[in-house]
């Protein structure tokens, strides 16, 4: 297969970027998008050209590192599928693919297709944890959790933090990500003690770096972990819960 790739090239966060056009003549249908970039980089290195920088790690759809925009769609043309599991067979011989980094003010470009997603890390650091007194943590089975509750919590915990939801949202919202983190912990008894403080801290941090929900639902369509839109409702519900409980205690 012959594919033309229009790739965003940017030397650093402070440099001006632009699209460069390359042609890969020996692509195969079973290649993933990352393997296609590997093939392109092999060509560029052979030609003495700086290879395209992009993130990847597990390449098994687990870590979420590999996110890029493909023809304007986060990760690629298939819904709920990470870039490392999107295949060249989704395109036709002779097609032109536009590859660029996730586009969001919350994700500044580091280089080429690599973006800084540390804003998502700051949301988790603000409250996405459970505090226990050192040396007094109860046994894991001391607080029983039903199978249904545990499975639901794990479904929300599956979010990899890839950032596709932010890139897909016209407002650059991270509410699907934030809601998934909040819902995961809100379901578990071990996390109830600081539930209200967690909600306030995480939502405030998310709103510092990201926009409000656009209500279009693009985020759930592109999410590789299949986080449902109900996660967004969790953001408003947990905020209101914290407000009401705070009023009652004051």
Written overview of the protein:
The chain has a 5-stranded mixed beta sheet with strand order 2-1-5-3-4. It is built from 8 helices and 7 strands, in the order ββαβββββααααααα. The protein folds into 2 domains: 3-111, Beta-grasp domain (Ubiquitin-like (UB roll), Roll); 118-249, Fumarate Reductase Iron-sulfur Protein, Chain B, domain 2. It has helices spanning 33-46, 118-127, 147-157, 164-168, 175-186, 195-209, 218-222, 230-249; strands at 3-9, 18-24, 69-70, 73-74, 96-100, 109-111, 114-115. The longest helix has 20 residues, at 230-249. It starts with a strand and ends with a helix. The mean pLDDT is 94. It is of the alpha+beta class.
Concise synopsis of the structure shown:
Helix content is 37%, strand content 11%.
CATH superfamily of the largest domain: Alpha-helical ferredoxin
C-alpha geometry: elongated
Low-confidence stretches: none
Order of helices and strands: EEHEEEEEHHHHHHH
In angstroms, what is the radius of gyration?
21 Å
Q: What structural class do helix, strand and pairing data support?
A: alpha+beta
User: Main β-sheet, in a few words?
Assistant: 5 strands, mixed
The CATH topology of the largest domain: Fumarate Reductase Iron-sulfur Protein, Chain B, domain 2
Protein name: Succinate dehydrogenase/fumarate reductase iron-sulfur subunit
Family: Belongs to the succinate dehydrogenase/fumarate reductase iron-sulfur protein family.
InterPro entries: 2Fe-2S_ferredoxin-like_sf, 4Fe4S_Fe-S-bd, 4Fe4S_Fe_S_CS, Beta-grasp_dom_sf, Helical_ferredxn, SDH/FRD_Iron-Sulfur, Succ_DH/fum_Rdtase_N
GO biological process, one term: aerobic respiration
């Amino acid at each position: 297969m012959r594919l033309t790739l229009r790739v965003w090239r940017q030397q650093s966060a402070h440099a001006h970027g632009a699209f460069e056009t390359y042609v890969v003549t020996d692509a195969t249908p079973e290649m993933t998008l990352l393997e296609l970039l590997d093939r392109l980089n092999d060509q560029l290195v052979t030609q003495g050209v700086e290879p395209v920088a992009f993130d990847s790690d597990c390449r098994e759809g687990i870590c979420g590192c590999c996110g890029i925009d493909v023809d304007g769609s986060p990760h690629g043309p298939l819904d709920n599928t990470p870039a490392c599991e999107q295949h060249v067979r989704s395109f036709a011989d002779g097609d032109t693919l536009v590859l660029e980094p996730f586009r969001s003010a919350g994700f500044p470009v580091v280089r080429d297709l690599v973006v800084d997603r540390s804003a998502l890390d700051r949301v988790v650091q603000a409250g996405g944890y459970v505090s226990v007194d050192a040396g007094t943590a109860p046994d894991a089975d001391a607080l029983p959790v039903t199978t249904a509750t545990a499975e639901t919590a794990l479904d929300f915990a599956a979010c990899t933090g890839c950032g596709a939801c932010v890139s897909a949202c016209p407002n650059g919202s991270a509410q699907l990500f934030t809601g998934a983190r909040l819902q995961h912990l809100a379901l578990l008894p071990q996390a109830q003690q600081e539930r209200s403080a967690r909600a306030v801290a995480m939502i405030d941090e998310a709103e510092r770096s990201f926009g409000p929900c656009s209500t279009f639902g693009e985020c759930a369509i592109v999410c590789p972990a299949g986080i449902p839109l109900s996660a967004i409702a969790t953001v408003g519900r947990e905020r209101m819960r914290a407000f009401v409980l705070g009023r009652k205690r004051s």
